[in-house]
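P.,

For your records, the input lines for the assembly:
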Amino acid sequence: MHFSNEKPGCCHPGFSSIHGGDFMDIKNVLVGISGSIGAVEIQNYLAALRSTWGASVHVIMTESAASMLQSKTVNYFIDGNVFLKSTDSTDQFKIPHIHLTTWADLMVIIPASANIIGKVANGIADDLLSTAAMAAKCPVVFCPNMNEHMLNRPAMQRNMHQLKEDGYLIIDPGEEEAIQLSTGQKVQGAMPGFSQFIPRLEETLRGQGLYV
Ligand SMILES: Cc1cc2nc3c(=O)[nH]c(=O)nc-3n(C[C@H](O)[C@H](O)[C@H](O)COP(=O)(O)O)c2cc1C
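Structure tokens returned:
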């Protein structure tokens, strides 16, 4: 997996997304998991990042995500660590929101709840994930996952528009079969199914001239 910086000023007015050179390997991926029901399927997405890109992965989980899915379980699917709080220091990542985002070539927030989208779109940094998304210098990709009523709210649409304006990337939610709620129906407003995750991620990066 390679980033390209050939397209000047492509996506991130506020981000120095490419660290120099024409192409950059994505070796380090920081995954943010927020409190959407899609979190329960995250292991397949984490596995895809490792098997397809050979990426090294650290994870940040919000409190809501950790109430849906045990951080211990997530830990089995990554070579890195799971971070829950801003004060979860390790020797390598003493100040997690700074050191994790410096380490990362790419940050992917999947699933992205309405809440995390609203917070980052409005400059609110009140937990580790929102703070990291704001501190990141690398590209940050949001994969919204919510029901269609939430998705279609004007506030939600405004927030997603604002994120794009601010240089964040969004994998536009669609009608997906992979994530089904209790209705058993296809879900409008869902993140890509895991088999589509890497292709959609690459397509999103390519669309911004960040991937060749
Ligand atoms: C079982 C359950 C499923 C949920 N699924 C979603 C969801 O798919 N999308 C969403 O935006 N919020 C969902 N929520 C609501 C969020 O968890 C809630 O807004 C929370 O504050 C999000 O916090 P976070 O963004 O810090 O993770 C769900 C809540 C519960 C209890």
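Two observations worth noting. Residues 4-10, 16-23 have pLDDT under 50 and may be disordered. The two ends are 8 Å apart (CA to CA).

Regards
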